[in-house]
Write a structure and sequence with these properties.
171 residues; alpha+beta; Translation Initiation Factor IF3; four-stranded mixed β-sheet; three-stranded antiparallel β-sheet; 6 helices; FkbM_mtfrase
Length: 171
C-alpha cells in the first residue's frame, strides 16, 4: 500500500482558485490521508499543488519579499510517498456474518480482484456497489460475469462509472 507521509517542517502555503489561502497544515492532513495500491493513482492528486500564478496576498506577506517559486509544492505528494505492508484479512474469519445487506468496494481499479475473493456462498449479499473508474474494461466484464453468475441484476453504472450497483432480487 502506498501513502504520502506528512511533509513536516515546510513553511509553505498555496493559493486556490477562489483566492482563499490554505496553510500547509491542511495540505499535510490531506497528503497524510491519501493512499492507493498504485503510485500513479497518488500522483494524479499532484495537480492540486501546482500553480502558475504568483502568491496570494497572504502568501506574499508571509514571504516578506523573498522569492516565490510557483512550483514549491508541485512535488509534495511524489516526494512524500512511502510504501508499507498492509495486513490482509480473511473475510470469512473476520466477518462471520450469515447475510450482508450491502457490500461496497473501492479498490482503485482492483475491484474485480476483491469481488472474486468474496465468499458469496457462505455470506450472501443483497446489494453490491463498486467503483469502475479505474478498472480496465476486461476486469469490469469479469466482475459483471461473476455477479451475474451469483444471481445479481445490474441496476446502474457501466465502464468507468463511479458507482456500479448490482442487486440480488432473491434476498
Amino acid at each position: 500500500m502506498l501513502g504520502a507521509d506528512r511533509a513536516i517542517g515546510r513553511r509553505v502555503s498555496r493559493s486556490v482558485t477562489n483566492g482563499e489561502h490554505v496553510r500547509l497544515e491542511a495540505i499535510d492532513t490531506f497528503i497524510s490521508e491519501i493512499s492507493s495500491l498504485s503510485a500513479s493513482h497518488l500522483v494524479q492528486f499532484q495537480r492540486l499543488y501546482t500553480t502558475q500564478r504568483g502568491p496570494c496576498a497572504l502568501c506574499g506577506q508571509l514571504l516578506a519579499g523573498r522569492a516565490y517559486d510557483a512550483s514549491c509544492s508541485s512535488r509534495v505528494i511524489r516526494d512524500n510517498m512511502r510504501s508499507t505492508t498492509v495486513r490482509c484479512y480473511c473475510m470469512q474469519q473476520e466477518l462471520p456474518w450469515e447475510h450482508v445487506s450491502l457490500l461496497t468496494i473501492d479498490a482503485e481499479g482492483h475491484d474485480y480482484s476483491v469481488l472474486s475473493q468474496y465468499p458469496f456462498a457462505s455470506s450472501p449479499v443483497q446489494r453490491v456497489v463498486f467503483e469502475a473508474t479505474h478498472m480496465r474494461n476486461v476486469d469490469f466484464d469479469r466482475a459483471a460475469a461473476l455477479l451475474d453468475s451469483h444471481g445479481f441484476v445490474f441496476l446502474k453504472g457501466g465502464y468507468k462509472a463511479g458507482d456500479n450497483v448490482w442487486h440480488h432480487p432473491g434476498r
